[in-house]
Amino acid sequence: MEIAEVLKNFCQEFNAYLETCFPLPEGAEQRTVAAMQYAVMNGGKRLRPFLLCECAGLFDIPHNISFPAAASLEMLHSYSLIHDDLPAMDNDDLRRGKPTCHKQFDEATAILAGDGLQTYAFEFLASAQEIQPAIRLTLLQLLANAAGAFTGMVAGQTLDLYAVPSGNPQTDENVITRLEEMKTGRLLRYACEAGAVLGKAPLDVRQHLVTYSRKIGQAFQIADDILDREGDQKLVGKTLHKDDSQSKFTYVSYYGVEPARKLAQQLIAEAQSELEIFGIKAEKLHKLARYIIDRKY
Predict the structure, then answer these.
(1) Which member of 27, 126, 180, 239 has the greatest number of CB atoms within 10 A?
(2) How many CB atoms lie within 10 A of CB 96?
(3) How many CB atoms lie within 10 A of CB 296?
(4) Mean pLDDT within 160-172
(5) pLDDT one-digit tens code per residue, 228-269
(6) Which residues are paired to 8 by β-bridges?
């Protein structure tokens, strides 16, 4: 089965589960919960939940165990997108081909919805009785670290907003790599690592999945940078050419399109080599790696 079909089938199953996660309060406070639900259910490739569930599946962990962790991850990811789209950040009107949360509702509600999703992600995971308490604690620690302001997603967003070229090639390359590693790569890493934690994988086996995640994370960001430069806005579902217009520090602005494309291909090959120890069980993860740089959105 082609990976696009695999992802489509996964999305149908996972989205049906996600819809059960947002009971609406009866009072006026339901507006924020409705905005939270809108942001989470507003399309999306579900790559991070898919990665988490596939990595857990390498150790024979079924979806009823991995879905609560995957849902909390998607909630946290969706919070980051809401805030990323705000006027003070990337100031975007489109997300996944639909109005961004602050356009569909209003800016104050969008901020609250992001705040709500961030806290609900941890509440939901902490309450997941399907997962053993010790494993839940490890996942909570890993997720908080991946999202945070020191080496996580918030730190990456800070670099994205304020990093500028220094003129020193080695320094600039390090900044681009750190930016991607924290802003985009940390949640992809968490997805793979969480799957291994759910499967009680030994540390050396877990490291193969961490390295895989780092390689596909860089390739994913390069593909996004190229799509911003060359993509079809109707397919991509968000405003394009913003990196250049905002003078963003990206792989494409630093390397150029073709060198960046070649780097992405090299990274995918290296990522796939990390899966060899899993044999045929990792077939979908192999295909996903290729999909990351071949996708049109």
Answers:
(1) 180
(2) 16
(3) 9
(4) 85
(5) 887 667 666 566 666 656 667 788 888 999 999 999 999 999
(6) none
